[in-house]
Amino acid sequence: MPTAFDTAEFRRSDAPVAHNAATAWGAGSTGRGVTIAFVDTGVDVNNPEFAGRISPLSKDVLNAGRDISGSDNHGTRVATFASAARNNSGVVGIAFDSTIMALRTDDVGSCVPGGSGTASGCVFSDSSIAAAVTYAADNGAKVINISLGGDGATAQVRNAVAAAANRGVLIVLAAGNEGLDEPESFATLLDTAAAGGVIIVGSVDADGAISSFSNKAGTQNSHYMAALGNDVCCVIESGTAYLLSGTSFSTPQVSAAAALLAQAFPNLTGREIADILLRSAYDVGAPGADVVFGRGILDIARAFQPLGTLSLAGSGAPIALNGVTGSGAPAMGDAFAASALPAIVLDEYRRAFQTDLAGTLRGAQPIERLRNAVGVQQRQISLGSANTSVAFSIDASDPHLGLRQGNLRLGMEDAETARVLAARVASRLSPDLAIGFAYAEGANGLVAQLQGQDRPAFMIAQEAAGDTGSMNRSDVAFALRKQVDGWGLTFSAERGAVLSGADILRAYEFGGRQAEDGASTYSVAFDRRFGDLDASLALSLLEEERTLLGGRFHDAFGLTGSDTIFLDAQFGWELAAGWRLGAALRHGQTRAHSGGLVAPGSRLSSTAWSFDLERLAVLTVDDALGFRVSQPLRVESGSLNLILPSSYSYETLQPGYDVRALGLSPTGRELLAELAWRGPLLDGSAAVSLFYRVDPGHYAALPDDAGAAVRWSRQF
């Protein structure tokens, strides 16, 4: 509860305390500007709790020239629980700023002790109630409180209530005080006539039990709810505080809650307000709508929370605040940790709520580099001639997999087990022209083969060239290299998909599956050898269909992809016999496609680099020891600029917009050092790696990662 409302007056006021009214007050909803019509015995115009808020349209409905204050205090007491002022005196009503339309409806001379009826012996005719309901609807009342009851309801009053409900007015009725299993037939018949425009209110005590005197929900349980009506504090009369009981006094609490909603969300109809209050009620008794409590007990705080499917204002695309609206890529690391992305969302009733979408963004899970290095069992098969080479990587996780010598021939069962994970074919068409194709393998390795590069083999630290900063799957790749006067010119292309690094709920994709979207890469590279130095320079274009450097965002944002230009520089230097120094640098410039909610000017700058030193023939003539330091691709600067709804007009039902910049540069910076040895061992080939990783995944808060890996394979 906001501390500003925690006063002695508030603590004396059972109704707003019991039903969490202070939550709505703290949001600015006090009932101001909303008229509640009280069809009753009148309201004391001199009561200081109502000063300045009794509507001049208040009247004696019977036009009998009577004072609207009335000779009976029932109407005044009812209005107190709805509308008593917040004035540090007495008690405060739930809608303490609301306007009171007092409609005195009791029959002339009927309010005498011992008379029949519900309000201190007062008698009310259906015709006068019908006239009061029609008058209230005609003169701007949003809520009509009828803390009256009886047996039956004439067509006249039923028609008046139905007409008011059709005009957007909510009618709130008392269930009655006979302790019956059904509400009084007066309330039941009016509920049926209003077709969702009526709430019937019963009474509970301070412990949430149904009051012994209260009529229960019965067959009207879908439009019935309860509020505090047992010994409710307090009404102050002549210096004396009275505790009151009855559904007459629980009813205005629901009416006041309706007024709070009507002020906060002026687009709502009476039927929608009724539905919100009933849906948000605190469920007690049997689960769901039951025959005792109906939909439950009034809970104003829950009524002010979004209900149903949410959407960004102006978008219409569904969005879940308890789901994921954005999934970062590894190059973005912990960028979302300190992000703010304020926006307006609409619920099922077109109510506008301020939210921070940054709470629904998820960074990519840091790549488990050790698992990726040793977690897959594979078999490699290669064959070739002077001009052509063919290589396969086959899933060998099944220990019973058998490969026959000679051609790759598998039975049906083995074929299911031995999936071809990757394949590469390279052919030299002439002394200065070579071509290559790859399946499930990127173009980077294919280009390196055509260029004749012999790159060091590290298990953990990857080379900067070809790092896209995301988790990609390559489907097919192609490369063509032409040798011209000592220069190599290589064209390559690759088609695959960008995989999501975190679950993201999308309008067409649920269930926690990894999502993927298409991506294509086109590159041109120049390479040349200068004595002991070889160098290459490449320019690449990465086209992503629905992602931004691997990051994926909710369909409501309208991101239609991005383009990244990468510049890669590599060199290798034969320092001395058996010694090689290598380096690679990648720089990227990314532009998100504008459109939808993506504003122009959404750009990212990214870098990756690696340095390595390798010594050949350390222990044997065929082994090598290498050391590499690298930084995986990291967004160095830039943001995704989103045109997000920042305000909402209930007059036009249209949002206002501001551009919000979502920074995608992480605070962490992953640095990876690896010492790797490879060579022959025990009739096979072995690789041993020691590594140390700072800020894994570009997450500054994650502890450093260190480990070792050993891999051994042999040829069959």
Describe it:
The protein is an alpha+beta fold and 716 residues long. The chain has two domains: 301 residues, Peptidase S8/S53 domain (Rossmann fold), CATH 3.40.50; 345 residues, Porin (Beta Barrel), CATH 2.40.160. Helices cover 16% and strands 37% of the residues. The chain contains 13 helices and 32 strands. It has a 16-stranded antiparallel sheet that branches. Helix 6 crosses helix 7 and helix 8 packs across helix 9. It is elongated. The relative contact order is 0.08.
Give a quick rundown of the structure:
With 716 residues, this protein is of the alpha+beta class. The protein has two domains: 3-303, Peptidase S8/S53 domain (Rossmann fold); 369-713, Porin (Beta Barrel).
Brief descriptors of the model:
716 residues, alpha+beta, Rossmann fold, Porin, 2 domains, 16-stranded antiparallel beta sheet, seven-stranded parallel beta sheet, 13 helices, elongated
Helices and strands in order, then pairings?
Elements: H1 8-12, H2 14-18, H3 21-26, E1 35-40, E2 59-60, H4 74-83, E3 99-104, H5 126-138, E4 143-146, H6 155-166, E5 170-174, H7 185-194, E6 198-204, E7 224-228, E8 232-237, E9 240-244, H8 247-264, H9 270-280, H10 300-303, E10 310-312, E11 318-319, E12 326-327, E13 342-346, E14 352-356, E15 361-362, H11 369-374, E16 378-384, E17 388-395, H12 412-417, E18 420-430, E19 433-439, H13 443-451, E20 471-484, E21 487-499, E22 516-530, E23 533-544, E24 552-553, E25 562-576, E26 579-592, E27 603-616, E28 624-649, E29 654-663, E30 671-681, E31 684-694, E32 705-713
